[in-house]
Amino acid sequence: MKTKILSALQLCSCLKLWLVAVLILSVSNDAHAARFSILDFGATADDKSDDTHAVVKTLNACAAAGGGEVFVPAGTFLISRQDAESPILEVSSNTTLLGEGTTSILKFAPKVNQSNFWRMLGAGAEDCRNVTIRDLHLDGSNAFKSYEPGKTPEQNHGVFFYKTEGVIENITIRDCLIENFSGDCIGLGPGCRNMTVRDVSVRNFIRQGIQMAGGNGARDYLVTGCQDLEGNVNPGGSTIHVEHARGLKNVIISNNRCRNSILAGGVDGIIIRDNTISGRLVGNNDTNIIVQGNIIRGGDHASSVMQLGYANGLIIKDNIIIGAHDEAGGIYVWGASRYNKTPSQNVTITGNIIQVGGRGIFLNGVEDGMVSNNLIKNTEAKQRVVIQRAERVDYETEP
To answer: What was the pLDDT predicted at 20?
Structure first.
């Protein structure tokens, strides 16, 4: 019996040693994941030579190895469209594309301003999973100061993930500066699932800063900690923009600093929380939406600072809403127009501080709602809460 007990103890000891060895080997393998530098494939920094082929070769080598890290060192590397490729630089599954921060620059060649459909980074023909893009500076070399119809190449984007067939999932874009694109700095679209954009700065975009669309099962987007920096371009769109959602589900937009508006429409399950917005918050055809804890300064817009239409399941809570224009409204929820008979439904508006010159809260075409405990400061008491073409709405004008 004693011999058997000792054998069991020895077996346990061997198992422990084996587990430790496996863990050490696993850590060692992670620490020595394949790394490919674009310098080793012919890229040269800070000159006028085109580095596109060198970067493509590096990405291809990483893909052939089954994944790893593609490293962009400090310096400026020029990228240009070679033919009809979209995107120009294809990032394959299990790849981390990283640099040393804002000094690692992938920049479009100046001829980008002469043509359209330059998309710098994105997924190729194959399904794309488990990708990280971080610590990089992407520069679109845009020379237009505002949108000029028929002239501005509005499809020249920075990061562009879009797949009408197949899957793009588990993608993280973080700690990047993305600027000077005549299209979108970041564009996410059909086929995208579990997408995270974190701590990214955008600047000098003409179309959108961060654009999100739907289709092909798109779901689970998180945009957090991002900001648009002051620049010298007049943006034609929003800092964060959700449209053409086509079934997009589960979007969180939180803790961002937006010099322009947030537009968010067509999503089932969206949370817009704790953002500072120096523009408006607008969206139509959302279901199951929470708007909470935001500070929204409407700028010089004469319309409502927050405007949401055809909503079903809407909570607007604990926001600070300020309209600088004398005629600006605060919160406007609408539906059931002569063009679309669907009302906004199941609406709760509570705990907001609203400082505007026009209507504080305006419900127009709403069924089943509650308005309570809002502090509304404007010049005319009768305009604090206005209910029109509504059914089953309970409301208070003061907390």
So the answer is: 42
Last residue of a domain, one of 277, 292, 313: 277
- DSSP per-residue codes, 353-382: EEE-SS-SEEEESEEEEEEES-EEE-S-GG
Measured in degrees and rounded to the nearest 5, phi and psi for residue 114 equal -100, -5
Total domains, the chain: 2
Q: How many CB atoms lie within 10 A of CB 399?
A: 11
Mean pLDDT of 186-198: 97
Q: Which domain holds residue 375?
A: 279-399
How many Cβ atoms from other residues are within 10 Å of residue 346's Cβ?
Answer: 16
Closest C-alpha among 278, 289, 295, 394 to residue 354: 295
Which two tokens mark 355? 């400082």
Residues 6+ apart with CB under 8 A from 43: 51, 54, 55, 58, 77
Residue 373: per-residue pLDDT: 96
Q: What was the pLDDT predicted at 111?
A: 95
Boundary-marking domain end, from 237, 255, 277: 277
SS (H, E, C) 127-177: CEEEEEEECCEEECCCCCCCCCCCCCCCCCEEEEECCCCCCEEEEEEECCE
Sheet with 201-203: list strands edge to edge.
75-79, 104-108, 137-139, 177-179, 201-203, 227-228, 257-258, 276-277, 295-297, 320-322, 353-355, 375-377
Residue 385 lies in a domain: yes
Question: For the whole model, what pTM was predicted?
Answer: 0.90
286 and 243 housed in the same domain? no
92 with 228, same domain: the answer is: yes
Token pair of 46, please? 């800070």
In a domain, 382, yes or no: yes
Candidates 265, 119, 272; CA nearest to 186 is 119
- 92 and 240 inside one domain: yes
